[in-house]
Design a protein that fits this description.
Largest sheet: none
Helix content: over 70%
Shape: globular
Number of helices: 15
Strand content: under 5%
Order of helices and strands: HHHHHHHHHHHHHHH
Structural class: mainly alpha
């Protein structure tokens, strides 16, 4: 009951912040001009944009499937349905509910224990933060004006990456030490559960140290991470083409990677308001593009992704919860 209340409070706070950001955005942008841009949109470019958007999640689902392959074979399409269903839940519930749901799907449909799937899911999300290197490498090539807000955002994302990387590194080198540390932290658990908790912690920490025993997975995981980053950027590149805005792919790669990385820090449900404000910060203030143009791009992209997430998420949530007995998806 207490957890449900806390989650409800978080959602309410997130929505409140989102609507405040939307109100600020409407004070910056002329709504009538936005409608004009929408009426002249070339929707032909929506098709390749959606393809690359969905493909980026397919790439990430393959990265997680490879991490889990040391435990059990998971059919490709079935695993992809888990990724899209998880994305759907993450989009509307700002507590990373999608990552929890994936562990439930793996347990229910493939009999993979939570202590085995959870570490892989965590490592998989940490790999997304490696894209911060793309942002840092492109700063001198884009000519962007890094004012205070963008500097703070980049610094915060670097901190998130360092924390994630440190967790992986420490667990790979200090596995037993961290297992004992977790046991001490959970000293409040009743003694009758000690053996179960100890076993779970040992398996969990061992799972987090996946690259210590499976170094061959490191390079493919990195390649898939940067391939997903390129696919994300191609999605956004075609969104600019919808409105006939000329922009270099380098700037798109920098800007959208930064937007995507910002999802690793708290956002309102469905990224209401936050996406628009970050978009203005990067492409309007940072790159000097027209604020109505960039607002049109982000608002249109937001509507398209919300539609895609709703349709694919609903379908894949059904597929993920439907346990097949005889015919696995391949």
């Amino acid at each position: 009951m207490k957890n449900k209340l806390n989650n409800t409070i978080r959602i309410i706070i997130g929505l409140t912040i989102g609507f405040i950001l939307v109100a600020i955005w409407f004070n910056i942008v002329d709504f009538n001009e936005l409608v004009y841009y929408f009426s002249n949109a070339n929707v032909v470019y929506v098709v390749p944009a959606v393809i690359f958007y969905l493909f980026s999640y397919f790439i990430r689902s393959e990265r997680l499937r490879k991490l889990l392959s040391i435990k059990k074979h998971i059919p490709i399409l079935k695993n992809y349905s888990y990724a899209l269903a998880g994305n759907f839940l993450n989009y509307f519930i700002p507590i990373r509910a999608g990552e929890i749901a994936k562990c439930i799907f793996y347990k229910r449909n493939h009999d993979i224990a939570y202590s085995e799937s959870a570490p892989s899911v965590i490592i998989d999300k940490i790999f997304d933060t490696f894209a911060i290197f793309v942002v840092l490498l492109l700063i001198p090539l884009t000519g962007i004006e890094l004012y205070t807000y963008l500097n703070l955002l980049i610094i915060l994302l670097i901190i998130v990456f360092i924390i994630g990387f440190s967790i992986v590194f420490l667990i790979s080198t200090k596995e037993k030490y961290l297992a004992n540390l977790f046991k001490k932290i959970l000293f409040v658990i009743p003694k009758k559960y000690n053996k179960k908790i100890e076993r779970f912690i040992n398996l969990f920490v061992k799972g987090l140290a996946i690259f210590k025993h499976n170094k061959q997975l490191l390079l493919p995981s990195l390649i898939l991470t940067f391939a997903a980053t390129i696919s994300d950027s191609l999605f956004f590149y075609f969104m600019f083409n919808v409105f006939g805005i000329e922009i270099s792919f380098i700037k798109i790669l920098f800007g959208y990677t930064l937007i995507f990385l910002s999802y690793s820090i708290p956002h309102p449900p469905a990224q209401i308001g936050s996406n628009q404000m970050i978009m203005l910060a990067i492409f309007y203030i940072g790159f000097g593009y027209d604020k109505i143009e960039v607002s049109a791009v982000m608002t249109f992209a937001h509507l398209i992704t919300a539609t895609v997430i709703l349709i694919t998420g609903t379908l894949c949530l059904f597929l993920a919860t439907y346990k097949e007995k005889n015919k696995p998806l391949i």
